[in-house]
Amino acid sequence: MTKADLVEVVAKKASLTAKASREAVGAVFGAITDALKKGDKVVVTGFGTFMVRSRKSRTGRNPQTGAPINISARKTPGFTAGKALKKVVR
Fold first, then answer.
1. What is the pLDDT of residue 72?
2. Would the pTM count as exceeding 0.85?
3. Which of 26, 29, 61, 84 is 20 to 30 A (C-alpha) from 35?
């Protein structure tokens, strides 16, 4: 499912226009993005939790030369599915 498909489904289920649905979906994604940018955790009860995860620096290998390279520490977005979502998917 693409973002456009999601906008279409939201428009049908919520009886919204395509433009209003696009703005609503964009607002939800924007709010999640802004919260993660600040380092906050976003909990959607019954769906899951969006959070920022920290990855440690580590040593990797250049696949062409085999030389060791240093991969720096970074933050990545993460998602953990809630119980209700896991149950529905099974």
1. 95
2. no
3. 84
